[in-house]
Write a structure and sequence with these properties.
The complex is a heterodimer of chains A (207) and B (212). Helices cover 67% and strands 0% of the residues of chain A. In chain A, helix 2 packs across helix 4 and helix 2 crosses helix 7. Chain A is globular and about 55 Å long. With 207 residues, chain A is mainly α. The longest helix of chain A is centred in the N-terminal third of the chain and has 22 residues. The two termini of chain B are 40 Å apart. In chain B, helix 2 packs across helix 3 and helix 2 crosses helix 4. The chains are: A mainly alpha (207), B alpha+beta (212). At the A-B interface, helix 2, helix 3, helix 4, helix 6 and helix 7 of A face helix 2, helix 4 and strand 4 of B.
């Protein structure tokens, strides 16, 4: 992952990017693209690839970065652009590609089952156990992607970027208590869905 | 596929147990939260297991998500501003193409603008909007308290006609807000499309509004 500059340094980069300095714009994109991807993942229509939407966000950003007036509000401003791109995509022409797996950009079912993903973090596990863990991870991700966006987004920001409740609240422009409640509800909904007999029939038992 | 969401499930009161587990898993628990957790765990040993399972699940989810967004690294900052090109799920138009589109839209608006007679036929007597053009009506609608923003129109199709004109089919996009009671069913499909008419939720209180 890209190393994120400190707050003051970031403000300087945003300011230079707004003035049209190309190297600053590139730096801003490099340090934010995984963050952008997380918001895209939370709001996109499931049939459209994350990368396609990111390209569109990047183009919008190129068009509009010089219109940003308040450097401190860069992230909420960028988030609104991302959400508008996702909403626009949902209402646009038919998607050009559908996904082999349940979630965009994800590996094939086989990739998951052979443990090609990073959920085991190098610890030794038996092949059978690895399959079950891979299956659980797949179901967990699929269920997280079916949460309503207002619950999915804070959960993704927390999981992916380790953002504090305060940082998430600032970004979403909601009170901290709302963030807390949404995260707790998101987890409760995930737990209930994963424990439901219907989900278990579809996806197998939990390891 | 359409996924019905039960508004009741989403807005049900948050239980203390879920909130505590969530705060602890995120490292955001206060001293008082930790003390309360210990107190509850003495009577309910399953609570510690639930916390461990939640922490493990969140680590697993984080690893899965990290893989999902890793593809983002391949998306580079564009070399130049938006090109004139067809992009998978929509049209991107700029420069002269945008100018043509605006001119065509203006032409359509002029050609199909309503006459005063049309408006008198379509609006109820005594309505303050009887003398408005369609464009004025649209602008008036945008001042409604539930309208948040109007986004740029999306061009769906550009077609050259036999008489040399260009037909541009486009979607207008108006961002609105509505409020759903906890016991009301809300259905949104996978594409993010709301499957109910928002007026169902707005008209229940009998609230009215006059433009302008």
């Amino acid at each position: 992952m890209e190393r994120e500059p400190g707050t003051a340094q970031m403000a300087g980069i945003v300011e230079r990017a707004c003035r049209g300095e190309r190297s600053a714009q590139q730096e801003l994109w490099r340090t934010h693209r995984r963050w952008v991807a997380a918001i895209v993942l939370a709001h996109r229509p499931r049939s459209i690839e994350v990368e396609d939407l990111m390209q569109e966000v990047a183009l919008k950003l190129v068009d509009r970065i010089e219109t940003l007036r308040d450097v401190a509000s860069f992230r909420p401003w960028l988030r609104r652009i991302i959400i508008n791109v996702c909403r626009g995509a949902a209402r646009s022409l038919k998607p050009t590609s559908s996904l082999a797996a349940g979630v965009a950009g994800g590996p094939s079912e086989d990739d998951r089952l052979v443990g090609g993903r990073g959920s085991n973090h190098g610890s030794h596990v038996e092949p059978g156990e690895q399959c079950l863990r891979g299956e659980f991870a797949r179901r967990l991700l699929d269920q997280a992607m079916t949460l309503p966006p207002e619950y999915r987004e804070p959960l993704l920001l927390r999981c992916l970027h380790d953002m504090s409740y305060q940082q998430i609240a600032g970004l979403l422009e909601v009170p901290i208590t709302t963030v807390e409640t949404r995260l707790a509800r998101a987890r409760r909904m995930l737990r209930e869905e994963l424990a439901s007999p219907e989900t278990n029939r579809k996806g197998g038992a939990r390891p | 596929m359409t996924t019905p969401l039960n508004a009741m499930q989403q807005h049900a009161p948050m239980d203390e147990r879920s909130l505590l587990l969530s705060r602890l898993a995120d490292g955001e628990a206060s001293e008082a939260d930790i003390a309360r957790f210990e107190q509850l765990a003495q009577n309910d040993p399953a609570l510690r297991r639930d916390l461990e399972e939640l922490q493990q699940a969140m680590r697993t989810l984080a690893a899965e998500l990290a893989e999902e967004v890793a593809a983002a690294d391949s998306v580079e900052w564009p070399e130049s501003k938006r090109p004139l090109t067809f992009r998978g799920w929509g049209w991107a138009i700029s420069g002269w193409a945008a100018a043509i589109a605006v001119a065509v839209l203006w032409g359509f608006a002029t050609k199909f603008a309503p006459t005063q007679t049309d408006l008198h036929h379509t609006r109820p007597a005594g309505d303050s909007s009887v003398n408005m053009t369609y464009d004025q009506l649209r602008r008036a609608y945008l001042t409604a308290p539930f309208v948040l923003d109007e986004l740029d129109p999306i061009v769906l199709e550009v077609e050259e006609l036999s008489d040399g004109r260009i037909a541009v089919r486009f979607l207008r996009r108006i961002e609105e807000i509505m409020f759903v009671e906890p016991n009301e069913p809300l259905t949104i499909d996978d594409e993010g499309t709301l499957k109910q008419d928002p007026s169902i939720f707005r008209n229940r209180d009998g609230e009215t509004w006059s433009p302008g």
